[in-house]
Structure formats: C-alpha cells, structure tokens
C-alpha cells in the first residue's frame, strides 16, 4: 500500500510495506488489532505435537494461533499458550464453530466448550467454520451475542463467498470482521478480495502455501532473486496484499523460516507475476 503524507515541502511518498514486522497487525472493524502472520494448527495432533509447534511459534515471535473445534487440538493450544509465560492479552487466539454445532443454542454451547478445552476466558476471534444452508444467520446471531458477552473479542466467518456474505450482512447487527478463506497464488480469489476490502472485512488466508505445492518455476526464480525460499516468497506476497496469513507447520525450522519474511520486499512487477499464476485451483 502506498500512501502520501504531508510534509513542509509537499507530499512525501511512504511505502507501508517497508514497515511490516512480525508484530505488525491489521485493525479490524471494531478496532481490535489482529496479527498479520500467525500459526495454523490444522491437522496437528493433540498433545506434544501441537504444544511444541505453538511454543516454538510463540518463542519465535508469533502472536497469533489459529485452531478450531474440528481440529481436535484446542486443549493443546491452550496448554501451550499458558506455558509460554506470555501475557494472555498479547496472544491472539482464533477458534471456530463446526458445522454440526451450528444453530443458535448449539453455537453458544460449542463456544463455551471450546473455551473450556482451551482453558481461556475468551477467544480473540470466533468464526463460523463453513456456511451451512439454513443455519448461518442463527449461528451468526449467536456469535453476535457471544461478542456482546465478551467471550469473543471479534467475530467473523470462514469460507463464505460474496453471495453468502451479502445474505448474512442483510440481517446481521454486527458486520463480520474477518473472512478466512483459501487464498494462494493458484487461487487468488480477486473478486472476493475486492469485495471484502470494500466492505472493510479482513481477509485471512488458510493454506497459503498451497499444501506445499511450491515447486513452480516462477517461485523458484524469485526465491533465487531475493535469497529466500519459495514459501517465504508466497507468505510475503500475502502480506504485501494486506491478507493475514496463517501457514501451518509443526516443523520447528519451518515455523521460524515462515516468520523470516520481514527483511525484504517483493517488487511490484513480481507481485503481478505471482498474481498471474492464478488458476482458480482450490486444494481444499
């Protein structure tokens, strides 16, 4: 994002991308600050695998952990958060209500169960995991009430397309603050990206690294050019677009590597070249 600031001599160009750091945040509609880079724990096993991954991330400087009731590892995430020694208010924890629990009363119950497993008094972000026909509106009403009660500091959705967001916003009291969807160079979702930006909804990318399918000639070329790995190139692409990214890993070296993306900047032409890789191909 390029902005212009007033100065004595006129307008001065300032590139905000250069200011990105591991502790950089995106401001949500309600003023909550959401870290731009986090750790996803989908498919990580409950127990030491998840705990070690979360502790490694937190020690490396991450301050956002994304889990879900369906992942089956909320308890391990909570144990790691508490064991880290980092004040609770400095860690951004996301979880989600699963499809089978949707509906007003069952969503309230599901959120409280997630909090019990996490061992936390609140989550920073609570999401509808997937849109369920006929249930999204009453499920979201429950999220609004959980937000009003302080059990979730921010609320939103996951995997909603433009039509589903439009329908939901036609009846909700509080606009969704986040939409977590699959976004990566092979699945850029530009129309959804534009819509969410216009509506002030923060886009968050799950599976940003395309399930490890990074052996694309362009990414390998850019990795050499910038002295980075293909994964680091892709994460930096997300961040420069203003998309929150939550790459998943349980490998200590990769967790640290994924965070080492704040000492370089992709040139505008390279951003466009990565955009052009899009095939509307979803790995999920």
TrEMBL record:
SUPFAM superfamilies associated with the record: NAD(P)-linked oxidoreductase (SSF51430)
Keyword NADP: yes
Organism taxonomic ancestry: Bacteria, Bacillati, Bacillota, Bacilli, Bacillales
PROSITE patterns in UniProt: ALDOKETO_REDUCTASE_1 (PS00798), ALDOKETO_REDUCTASE_2 (PS00062), ALDOKETO_REDUCTASE_3 (PS00063)
Span of domain NADP-dependent oxidoreductase: 37-278
Binding site for substrate: 129
Protein name: Aldo/keto reductase
Similarity field: Belongs to the aldo/keto reductase family.
Any one GO molecular function term: oxidoreductase activity, acting on the CH-OH group of donors, NAD or NADP as acceptor
Site description Lowers pKa of active site Tyr, residues in chain: 96
NADP recorded as keyword: yes
Keywords attached to this entry: NADP, Oxidoreductase
Active site: 71
């Amino acid at each position: 994002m390029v902005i212009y600031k007033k100065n004595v001599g006129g307008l001065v160009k300032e590139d905000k991308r250069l200011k990105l750091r591991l502790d950089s945040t995106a401001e949500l509609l309600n003023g909550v600050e959401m870290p731009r880079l986090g750790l996803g724990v989908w498919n990580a096993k409950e127990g030491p695998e998840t705990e070690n991954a979360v502790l490694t991330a937190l020690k490396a400087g991450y301050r956002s952990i994304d889990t879900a009731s369906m992942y089956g590892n909320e308890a391990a995430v909570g144990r790691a958060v508490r064991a880290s020694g980092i004040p609770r208010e400095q860690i951004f924890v996301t979880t989600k209500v699963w499809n089978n629990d949707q509906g007003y009363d069952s969503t309230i119950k599901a959120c409280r169960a997630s909090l019990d497993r996490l061992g936390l008094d609140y989550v920073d972000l609570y999401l509808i995991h997937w849109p369920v026909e006929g249930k999204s509106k009453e499920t979201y009403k429950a999220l609004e009430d959980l937000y009003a009660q302080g059990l979730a500091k921010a609320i939103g959705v996951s995997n909603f397309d433009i039509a589903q967001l439009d329908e939901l916003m036609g009846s909700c009291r509080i606009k969704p603050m986040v939409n977590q969807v699959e976004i990566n160079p092979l699945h850029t979702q530009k129309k959804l990206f534009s819509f969410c930006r216009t509506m002030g909804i923060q886009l968050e990318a799950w599976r940003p690294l395309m399930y490890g399918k990074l052996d694309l000639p362009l990414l390998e070329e850019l990795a050499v050019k910038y002295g980075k790995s293909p994964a680091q190139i892709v994460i930096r692409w997300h961040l420069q677009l203003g998309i929150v990214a939550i790459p998943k890993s349980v490998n200590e070296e990769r967790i640290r590597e994924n965070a080492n993306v704040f000492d370089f900047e992709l040139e505008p032409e390279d951003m466009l070249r990565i955009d052009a890789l899009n095939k509307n191909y979803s790995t999920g």
